[in-house]
Amino acid sequence: MKILVINGPNLNMLGIREPEIYGSVTLKNIEEELIEYSKKFSDIELEFFQSNSESEIVDKIQNSINNDIKGIIINPAAFTHTSIAILDAIKAVKIPCVEVHLSNINSREDFRKISYISSASIGTIAGFKQNGYKMALFGLINYLNE
Ligand code: DQA
Description:
Blueprint: E1 2-7, H1 19-22, H2 27-38, E2 45-50, H3 54-63, E3 69-75, H4 84-93, E4 97-101, E5 123-126, H5 131-145
Helix pairs in contact: 2-5, 3-4
The site of 1,3,4-trihydroxy-5-OXO-cyclohexanecarboxylic acid (DQA) has 10 residues, from loops.
């Protein structure tokens, strides 16, 4: 079963970027940890994609249909709070999606409390730093196996 993990803008800067908020691990560390964690489940294939471009993320979501992707984990980063285009792409492909944030967006600035992505997600995990991706994978696999 193929699961696509999408990370949005500035998440390629993890490790350097505001470590007090996002932790000190890099995106590569997060991806390696998730691959290790996915081995607890049978038949899971992860594909990773990071982009700073909204249009590339929309294209990637659209192409999921042709690539036999069964579920999506997405940290849309700043696009969480602005992107109707990403919301519409998730709704268009109808692939179950879990939204992840490293930080607890609900305890930060008011503009981070609004997520355009939540309404198209089966669930949102926020505030558990890199472990949020593992929690998202656990939830998504259980959802898909129900
Ligand atoms: C983030 C939270 C967003 O508000 C922010 O713009 C990010 C990262 C998080 O993972 O906590 O880039 O999505």
